[in-house]
Design goal:
about 325 residues, alpha/beta, eight-stranded parallel β-barrel, 10 helices
Length: about 325
């Protein structure tokens, strides 16, 4: 099944190509999987027959709240956005919430929403092929270095982890060595953060494993947290990772190309703790001119809105 390497398809731009053109751009670049951040009917229609695997987000916190509050709302959602496309769109994962802030009360909605969506998929006979998860950022973990110390920061995440174990779903993690490096360049080298050759190897005293890049260390901290939560069999999917090419500290075309090509090439190896394939989604397909926040946020794209590459990148089989 596709999806060893995917790319996140954000649409916060007023100059982006049509959905159909975007699907063709994925195919022509051998990009096997796509993440979309809400049930974008035009994108789902364009994906019909493409063979591209999909992470389908339910949308923002309001969408999570609606799904948590009503089993029938979840059944309607699954019917409209999964069953309507199941014959010819390869939806692999439903992301119920993206980086939900535990402080706003939404965290308590996650598990009820995930349970309702899973029950709706099961009723439709789709729970074997479509898995329900949530996407977390690294502040969901209280201690990540060395990786063996990884633990969930909030207690409710242990319940989420056991739900994933019970249903055979992965945990989706948004993992950004760029931000870790930007925030602590004194202790993290550019080489270690960006897959450059010559990075000093870091050995984890807790488990004896050796790390040559920061992405592996961050992902293995997630695995350590899952194990401590009683869910050692849950796999991690990197649902976002990327590096900006302009707009801020260490944001350059060269660094972005080095990192993103490194992620793509490295996905086949897995991590020291979990060798094998590490399913990874690069953020993002396009530079999106309507994204808010720091200037770098508008410069994560692999492609310009005119479909030209920001820098050369190869998605190898």
């Amino acid at each position: 099944m596709g999806g060893v390497h995917g790319v996140c398809y954000g649409v916060l731009g007023d100059n982006l190509p049509s959905r159909a053109d975007v699907v063709q751009l994925y195919k022509s670049n051998n990009i096997q999987a796509m993440r979309i951040y809400f049930p974008d009917q035009a994108a789902l229609a364009a994906l019909r027959g493409s063979g591209i695997a999909v992470i389908l987000d339910v949308g923002g916190v309001d969408a999570v709240r609606a799904l948590a509050s009503s089993a029938s709302a979840a059944a309607d959602w699954v019917q409209a956005n999964v069953q309507a496309y199941q014959r010819d769109v390869l939806i692999k994962y439903i992301a119920v919430g993206n980086e939900v802030d535990p402080g706003d009360g939404a965290a308590g909605l996650l598990l009820p929403a995930m349970r309702n969506v899973h029950a709706a998929l099961a009723s439709a006979g789709l729970d074997g092929s479509v898995k329900v998860s949530t996407a977390v950022k690294m502040d969901a973990f209280a201690d990540t270095f060395p990786p063996s110390r990884g633990v969930f920061a909030q207690g409710y995440m242990a319940d989420v982890a056991r739900f994933l174990a019970d249903t055979g779903a992965p945990l989706l993690a948004n993992v950004y060595p760029y931000f870790a490096y930007r925030d602590d360049p004194r202790n993290i080298s550019l080489e270690f953060a960006s897959f450059r050759p010559g990075a000093a190897t870091v050995t984890d005293g807790g488990n004896g494993l050796a790390y040559t890049n920061l992405l592996d260390a961050m992902v293995d901290a997630v695995y350590a947290a899952l194990e401590k939560a009683g869910a050692p069999g849950v796999k991690v999917v990197v649902s976002e990772s990327g590096w900006p090419s302009a707009g801020g500290f260490a944001a350059s075309v060269d660094n972005a190309r080095q990192y993103n090509q490194g992620v793509i090439d490295h996905a086949r190896q897995g991590t020291p703790r979990k060798p094998g394939v590490l399913e990874t989604y690069v953020f993002a397909m396009f530079n999106e001119n309507q994204k808010t926040g720091d200037e770098i946020e508008r410069h994560f794209g692999l492609f310009n809105p005119d479909k030209s590459p920001v820098y050369p990148i190869a998605f190898r089989n």
